[in-house]
C-alpha cells in the first residue's frame, strides 16, 4: 500500500532497514560478534543493514574503527542485503571523507545525520547535504532527528534538497506525522520512519519503511508489520503495531539508545559486550523492568527471535 503516487527516488530501500549495534569486548570492537549480528539480520530477511549510526555508538568510535566496521559489514553482507553506512558528522569535511571511503568500500547508500551541536542555519543544512551528495555516486538519506542534534531540518529545506539528484531519502525522526505528510506530499523522496513505534502511522500516510532499532531483536516481526502495511492489510498491521508498541515503548523508553537494546540482546542470549563511555549500563531496577517486558513479549531465548 502506498498513498504517494509519484515514482520516488530511493524506493529500492523500502521495507525494513536495521540500525545495528556495534559489539565491544575488552574495550575493542568485537568483529566476530559483529558478523554474527549481520548474519542474524540477513537470515531474517532484513532488506538493508545500517552500521555505525547512533545505535552503533558511532560517536565513540575512532575514525579507523568507523571505517573498519563499515567495511566488515559490507564484506559480510556480500550483496545479500543493502548496506546504508552511517557516515554523517557535524563537520562537512569529515562527513565527506567518511562517505567517500564507504562508497569506495561498496556501500549502497549513506545515512547522513543532521550536523549536531554547531546548529547550522537552514542554508547551512542545505549546503552541507548538497556538498556530500555531489561528491559521491551513492544515494544519500538525510537523517532528521532534532532530539539528538538540537535543531530540525525544516520541510522547506528538505524540499530544496529533493531537487538534488543524489539525495533520495529522508529518515524522519521528528515524531511529527504532519512533517512526514508534508515531505511525502511535496517531494519525490522516499521517507523512512525513524521511530519504531510510529512505523504504522507513518507508512499509512506514505512512508515506505523504517530504519529500526527494535529490529536488532525482532526483525521478523518488524518485517511482518512493514509487509502488512504495504499489502494494505491494516487489520493485521494494527495487531502487529500494538504487539510491537509495548516492546518499543517499554524497552526504548528505559534509557538512551542503544543502552536498552544492547541490554535486551544480552538477556536473550545474544550478548554484544560493553557500552563505551559516556554510555553506561542499565541500573538493576531498569534491567528488571526490561526483563519483564521481554518475557511479556514472549522472548525466553534467542531461538524465539528468529
UniProtKB/TrEMBL annotation:
SMART domains: DHDPS (SM01130). Its EC number is 4.3.3.7. Keywords: Amino-acid biosynthesis, Cytoplasm, Diaminopimelate biosynthesis, Lyase, Lysine biosynthesis, Schiff base. InterPro entries: Aldolase_TIM (IPR013785), DapA (IPR005263), DapA-like (IPR002220). The active site is at 143 (proton donor/acceptor), 171 (schiff-base intermediate with substrate). It catalyses: L-aspartate 4-semialdehyde + pyruvate = (2S,4S)-4-hydroxy-2,3,4,5-tetrahydrodipicolinate + H2O + H(+). It is an enzyme of class 4 (lyase). GO terms for molecular function: 4-hydroxy-tetrahydrodipicolinate synthase activity. GO terms for cellular component: cytosol. It is found in: Cytoplasm. GO terms for biological process: diaminopimelate biosynthetic process; lysine biosynthetic process via diaminopimelate. Pyruvate binds at residues 55, 211. Signal peptide: none annotated. Pathway: Amino-acid biosynthesis; L-lysine biosynthesis via DAP pathway; (S)-tetrahydrodipicolinate from L-aspartate: step 3/4. It holds the Pfam family DHDPS. The record marks 54, 117 as: Part of a proton relay during catalysis. Homotetramer; dimer of dimers. Belongs to the DapA family. Catalyzes the condensation of (S)-aspartate-beta-semialdehyde [(S)-ASA] and pyruvate to 4-hydroxy-tetrahydrodipicolinate (HTPA). PANTHER family: 4-HYDROXY-2-OXOGLUTARATE ALDOLASE, MITOCHONDRIAL (PTHR12128:SF66), DIHYDRODIPICOLINATE SYNTHASE (PTHR12128). This is 4-hydroxy-tetrahydrodipicolinate synthase. It comes from Novipirellula herctigrandis. The lineage of its organism: Bacteria, Pseudomonadati, Planctomycetota, Planctomycetia, Pirellulales. The gene is dapA_2.
Amino acid at each position: 500500500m502506498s498513498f504517494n503516487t509519484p515514482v520516488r527516488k530511493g524506493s529500492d530501500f523500502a521495507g525494513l532497514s536495521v540500525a545495528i549495534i556495534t559489539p565491544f569486548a575488552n574495550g575493542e570492537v568485537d568483529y566476530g560478534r559483529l558478523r554474527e549480528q549481520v548474519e542474524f539480520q540477513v537470515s531474517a530477511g532484513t532488506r538493508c543493514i545500517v552500521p555505525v549510526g547512533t545505535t552503533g555508538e558511532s560517536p565513540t568510535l575512532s575514525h579507523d574503527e568507523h571505517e573498519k566496521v563499515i567495511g566488515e559489514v559490507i564484506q559480510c553482507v556480500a550483496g545479500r542485503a543493502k548496506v546504508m553506512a552511517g557516515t554523517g558528522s557535524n563537520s562537512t569535511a569529515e562527513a565527506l571523507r567518511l562517505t567517500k571511503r564507504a562508497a569506495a568500500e561498496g556501500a549502497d547508500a549513506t545515512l547522513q545525520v543532521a550536523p549536531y551541536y554547531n546548529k547550522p542555519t537552514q542554508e547551512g543544512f542545505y549546503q552541507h547535504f548538497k556538498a556530500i551528495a555531489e561528491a559521491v555516486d551513492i544515494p544519500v538519506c538525510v537523517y532528521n532527528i532534532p532530539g539528538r542534534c538540537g535543531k530540525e531540518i525544516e520541510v522547506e529545506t528538505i524540499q530544496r534538497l529533493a531537487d538534488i539528484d543524489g539525495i533520495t531519502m529522508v529518515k524522519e525522526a521528528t515524531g511529527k506525522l504532519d512533517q512526514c505528510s508534508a515531505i511525502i506530499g511535496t517531494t519525490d523522496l522516499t521517507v523512512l520512519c525513524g521511530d519504531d513505534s510510529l512505523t504504522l502511522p507513518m507508512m499509512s500516510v506514505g512512508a515506505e519503511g523504517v530504519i529500526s532499532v527494535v529490529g536488532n531483536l525482532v526483525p521478523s516481526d518488524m518485517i511482518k508489520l512493514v509487509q502488512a502495511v504495504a499489502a494494505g492489510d491494516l487489520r493485521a498491521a494494527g495487531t502487529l503495531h500494538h504487539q510491537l508498541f509495548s516492546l518499543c515503548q517499554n524497552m526504548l523508553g528505559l534509557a538512551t539508545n542503544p543502552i536498552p537494546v544492547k541490554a535486551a540482546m544480552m538477556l536473550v542470549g545474544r550478548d554484544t559486550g560493553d557500552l563505551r563511555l559516556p554510555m553506561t549500563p542499565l541500573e538493576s531496577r531498569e534491567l528488571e523492568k526490561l526483563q519483564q517486558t521481554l518475557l511479556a513479549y514472549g522472548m525466553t531465548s534467542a531461538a524465539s527471535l528468529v
